[in-house]
Structure formats: structure tokens, C-alpha cells
Design brief:
Elements (H helix, E strand, L loop, with lengths): L21 E8 L3 E9 L2 E7 L10 E11 L7 E3 L7 E15 L4 H7 L1 E7 L4 E8 L10 E6 L11 H4 L33 H5 L11 H9 L1 H6 L11
Antiparallel strand pairs: 1-2, 1-6, 2-3, 3-4, 4-9, 5-6, 6-7, 7-8, 8-9
The protein binds manganese (II) ion (MN).
Manganese (II) ion binds next to strand 2.
Length: 241
């Protein structure tokens, strides 16, 4: 793998800043599989959902739907968004690293507002120059349609499908359907009111737990302990935060 700290910048001139902002691409199996492309900007993660994921082929333009900003900490999340939350499903960190603004102008926030952002990625799968360009969506679109495209540089390639050859997490090496619920993220928790019920709410209702099983159940457990323990009620859980 290329080490950019040891390799001179190909497009030279501009020295790298001491600390670059981060990017993350999360592969997310919600109702539909997609790739969430996120760039750290203004303390949050500017976010786009890319249904087909990135392509190194500079002739391929991938639709990228701009979605709501995500908290910076979400960049480290890999796990399960519980049922009942927006985007319920599995998430892996498909790629991460740093990004560097290229153009237009010298202010990435202004560039974003103008609807065009060219940048360089220093990831484990994502390298070189890329761009996000806002497009005028078809009638009835929400005005959040962008394209993610690869600029022509030494990394551009029509021969490699990066989502195909490198499908797994850069953190756990798991694919998206292999992550378990050890870590969860409640995407609805920032809602000010009327929070939708989550799986955690269903597992840990506020009403007291039901009384232990009847005598009939315990007598059955004496005759067949193995079967009975398999059917034991789940242990009470703390509310997931
Ligand atoms: Mn998503």
C-alpha cells in the first residue's frame, strides 16, 4: 500500500497541511445497500448517500444524494442501527482517512455551497483526486442530487471495480452483513420530541419485567433442564444509548 507521507505529492507545489480533516465511507445495508460518503467540515460530517459506491473510472458518474450532517463521532461507528431508527441496518467502515480540498477557491465551505468540490483522498481504498458536483435534479427531486466522480490522474482506472475487489471493513475486515449488534447507534436520539421507539425500547420496556414462570414451567425444567434453559427469557438489558 502506498505511503503518502513518504511519497511526494504528484501534483506538487502545495505542501500538505499539518493536520487534514477526515473522511469516512460507510457501507450501509439499510432497506437498500449504499455507501455513505462523509467529509469532515465545520466540525461535522457532510454526508452523501451513494447507492452504487465510488468508481475509479473517470467516465462513470455516481449519483450521490446529500443527506443530513452527521456528528463527527459517527465516523468511528461500525455496527447496527436498531430497528425503528432512521437507516436501520448494518454499517461497516468501508474506508477512511484524510481529505484535502483542491478547488474551487480556497474555502471548502464556500465551494460546497457553490455546488462543486474537488478534493484529494488519502484513504486505504480511496486515493487521488475526486469531485462532488451538484446537479439539477429531475422535476420532483429534493434538490439534493450530486455526482461523485473520479478525476483523471494516475489512480484513475476503468478496469478495477473498487467496491467489488475491496468489499470489506478497513477496521474489522467484516463485510456489511457480518457485523453483529455489539455496537449500536440510535440515529433518532437527537430528535427533540416524539422519538420513534427503538429495538432497545422494546427490549427494555419501562414497565416492570413479568413475574418468573409458573410452577408448571419449573417442574418442566426439572425433567428437561437443557430444553428449558434454551427457552429462558432474555436477561434484562439496560437501555442502549
Ligand atoms: Mn446510510
Amino acid at each position: 500500500m502506498r505511503d503518502f507521507k513518504a511519497t511526494p505529492e504528484p501534483s506538487g507545489g502545495k505542501p500538505r497541511k499539518a493536520k487534514l480533516p477526515i473522511f469516512v465511507i460507510q457501507k450501509h445495508h439499510a432497506s437498500r445497500l449504499h455507501y455513505d460518503f462523509r467529509l469532515e467540515m465545520e466540525g461535522v460530517l457532510k454526508s452523501w448517500a451513494v447507492p452504487k459506491g465510488p468508481s475509479y473510472d473517470p467516465t462513470v458518474k455516481r449519483l450521490a444524494m446529500m443527506t443530513e450532517d452527521h456528528p463527527y463521532d459517527y465516523a468511528g461507528f461500525e455496527g447496527v442501527i436498531p430497528a425503528g431508527n432512521y437507516g436501520a441496518g448494518n454499517v461497516i467502515i468501508w474506508d477512511n482517512g484524510e481529505w484535502e480540498f483542491i478547488e474551487p477557491g480556497d474555502d471548502p465551505v464556500k465551494a460546497l455551497k457553490s455546488g462543486k468540490l474537488a478534493f484529494r483522498l488519502y484513504g486505504k481504498k480511496m486515493f487521488g483526486e475526486w469531485a462532488l458536483v451538484k446537479i439539477k435534479g429531475r422535476d420532483g427531486s429534493k434538490g439534493n442530487e450530486w455526482l461523485l466522480l473520479k478525476h483523471r490522474d494516475q489512480y484513475a482506472s476503468a478496469d478495477v471495480d473498487v467496491t467489488e475487489v475491496a468489499p470489506r471493513s478497513v477496521i474489522s475486515n467484516k463485510d456489511v452483513d457480518e457485523v453483529g449488534g455489539e455496537r449500536t447507534w440510535e440515529s433518532n436520539r437527537k430528535a427533540s420530541s416524539g422519538r420513534a421507539p427503538t429495538l432497545a425500547d422494546k427490549l427494555a420496556p419501562t414497565k416492570p419485567a413479568p413475574a418468573p414462570r409458573s410452577r408448571a414451567a419449573s417442574s418442566r425444567s426439572r425433567s428437561s433442564p437443557a430444553r428449558s434453559s434454551r427457552k429462558a427469557a432474555p436477561t434484562p438489558r439496560r437501555r442502549l444509548r
